[in-house]
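Hi all, long-time lurker, first post. I run a small reading group and we've been trying to get comfortable going from sequence to structure in the token notation. Rather than ask abstract questions, I figured I'd post a concrete chain and ask someone more experienced to write out its structure so we can walk through it together at our next meeting. Sequence below, copied exactly:
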Amino acid sequence: MDPTPTAPALPPVSGLSRAVISFLDGELREREALSLASDLVAGLETQCRDLDRSLVELRSRLEVNLAAYSSFSDRVHGSLGGISAKFVELLSLVGPFDSLSDGGGGRKILGEELPALAKEVARVEMVRAYAETALKLDSLIGDVEEAVSSTLKRKHSFAQSSEEVRMHAIRTLNEIEGVTTQVSKLRPRWTHLVCAIDHRIDRALAILRPQAVADHRAFLASLGWPPPLSASTSANPDAGRLTAVPNPLLTMQGDLKRQYCENFLSLCHLQQLQRRRRSRQLEGRNREIALHQPLWAIEELITRDYVDSMDELLQPLVDEAMLAGYSCREEWITSMVSALSTYLAKEIFPLYASQLEEESITGVRSKARTSWLHLIDLMISFDKQIRSLIANSGISFSLMDESNLQKLSSLSVFCDRPDWLELWAAIELSDTLDKLKADVDNERNWTKKVQGVVLVSGPEDFRSPLVSDFFLRRLSSVVDRSRSLPNIPLRSKFLKLVGAPIILKFLDCLLVRCQEAEGLTALTDDSALIKVANSVNAARYVESVLREWCEDVFFIEMGLRVGDEPGKSQAEEGDFDGTVYGPGSGVFDKEIWKLEEFIVEWVEKISVVVLRGFDVSSRDYIRNRKQWQGKSEEGSTVSRTLVDALDHLQGKMSIIEESLNGMDFVMVWRKVAEGLDQSISNGLLLSNMKFYDGGIERLSSDMEVLFGVFRAWCLRPEGFFLRVCEGLKLLRMGEKQVKDILAGGLERLKEEGISHLRVFEAEKIAKNRVFTS
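-- Answer (accepted) --
Happy to help. Here is the structure in token form:
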């Protein structure tokens, strides 16, 4: 009878490494696990075969790289050999010539061939350096890619071995980053090489970082983190206080603590590498904001959601069922939003709507409006969290159409209930206007100016009162809330129901203040003029900001979709004056047009006030016929009767310049100049005044002083007094010249540079000229 075969002797424990002992403790912890030893052996053999296959692939890849490097070395050696031959040829040419007596050959070699040869040597050296750098980086990146691939294959193998491979990959990545940084600084033209390196590193990090984070999460879970909530909230009746819950991070000992520290450091090193790369890539920009991020390892101690289980558990089942095009993560998020939207549409909004209806009937103010706005705030906050969750999943919002975005927003309840949207808009508008009332009633807000306004169009000083900034802030808040709506027609309608009335309310406030100032003193008082100027400044500031907003893509999209709202035709987009705002118009175009109309109207009124005062002050000057018939007053540069009118003009224009914004002040002084040109030309030149030589000299002197008032705002004010200047030009001409010009008609007048006076006006001015022999 054969003896019973004996089992092979086990190796002594002292001969096993710490990693092997840790692995066996983890896999064979229970006695029942011994029955699965054969499966464990089979798994280990499979992993060994995979590692052997990887080793063969590495060897073949190394052979290919060595062959490529050998080929390149041969080419470089050949180039250097050619250069050496050229040097020998050069020496043979230079030898027979004396450097001092050579007439031309030596100078040609030294002056032409040597620089070309040096340039060729430098080019070959740069190619050699480029090739060596590229080969070095390729070799290092190959090591990283192999390490990343190895960590994936060792996912269920020795944890300690996997961590060592990852740390080796991180060290190699740091070495690559050091070389890349040096190349970026010393060889700025090698951009294609740097871009290629960054692309391959990005692919490696896209695998390495999620895997490191996943391993860290798994390690935290094995520690029992986070502590159970039930234990932390249970009361101890004997002690009369909460039971103490041990912190797993503080109870770690020995190898467990060392492994956690190494795992934590691995994440930290990886984040530091990422900071180095971002710092290099953002060179020359504001890097502090972009580089500042929370510590990844600390973030993992905060539990926020369980959506990852959708990918790990359910997605394989969906794929196995061959349901193509479905993502469990997206379906879970969509279902969660849909469930909330359905609940709000069936239970909450009908209740709030009925409360508002009851409030409108009874007239008793309830909390329904406050509750409605609070609910909207919660919905917007919820949608932002959903967007953050989707963004962290790698889904881009820019690639989604409106139908998908609508599924991911709780505010989609308004898509099927436009009456609820109108209710929300009415509540939002009422709440905003209530908050603005105190700002409008505070007179200090109408005198204190907005400081530090810089728009994209330029650093214009609008001199706008502070109340305009309050309106814009409230309006900006409304715009931000509209961004949360899931489609463009809803956003456009909401802004027209809330934003447009806010702008019109602001315009009404400006109009009331201007009408009050005009009704009291007809704007003759300086304080009334300043009050109107402040209102014009406020309108100009708001109009400029709105125009800048409307250049944003958010508003442009809404302008392109005008007329998309159900039951709304383009004819309804017109205004009372027949202006039609069709496709391509902005949401606030009508309001901007009304602000511009207000500005033009009151700038015109300011100009009229100045002109009216000048006409009154210069009445004696205009009616004095004798002053144009005698000689000019000696020692005087301006007629005495014109002095008061000029003082009035300078005083008013000085007040307007100090009070009004620069853009509209230009409109004012140009309108005043145009009005004075008409007034003087009609009142003097085209009247029945008779002008002698002395009178023409006096009029020319007076007009030069008048032009000097406007020279503070333009270099050539004569260009804004064209009728007066052309009239003076006719008066200065000789008798025969005037007759010849008038005989030639309109064409001859234009040839003489007189284009703003008609023929009969030129003839009338000529008749008023008295020539003395």
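A couple of things your group might point at:
The longest strand covers residues 235-236.
Residues 277 and 283 are 10 Å apart (CA to CA).
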